[in-house]
Amino acid sequence: EVVTILKDMQKQCGIKNLMIDPNVKGKGTFYLVAVPCRQAWSVVLRSMGLDSVTYPNSVATVGKRRH
Description:
By secondary structure, the protein is α+β, with helices and mostly antiparallel strands. Helices cover 34% and strands 24% of the residues. It has two helices and three strands; from the N terminus they run αβαββ. The protein has helices spanning 2-13, 37-47; strands at residues 17-20, 50-55, 59-64. Strands 1-3-2 form a three-stranded mixed sheet, with helices on one face. A hairpin with a 3-residue loop joins strand 2 and strand 3. Helix 1 (2-13) packs antiparallel against helix 2. The longest helix is centred in the first third of the chain and has 12 residues, at 2-13. The chain is globular and about 30 Å long. The termini are far apart.
């Protein structure tokens, strides 16, 4: 599940506060090796049709990408 993927990335990338819109759903499989967090985050979001806003103090929000 994408929410599980995002929460795992939150831990690995040191994002202290992650807010995920309840409408974020989907499944995916990612195998990334030696990829910087910022780039991996971007790849996962784009692949899942999501967008993120990062605020100061390590706060990030995730929701569906607006077309």
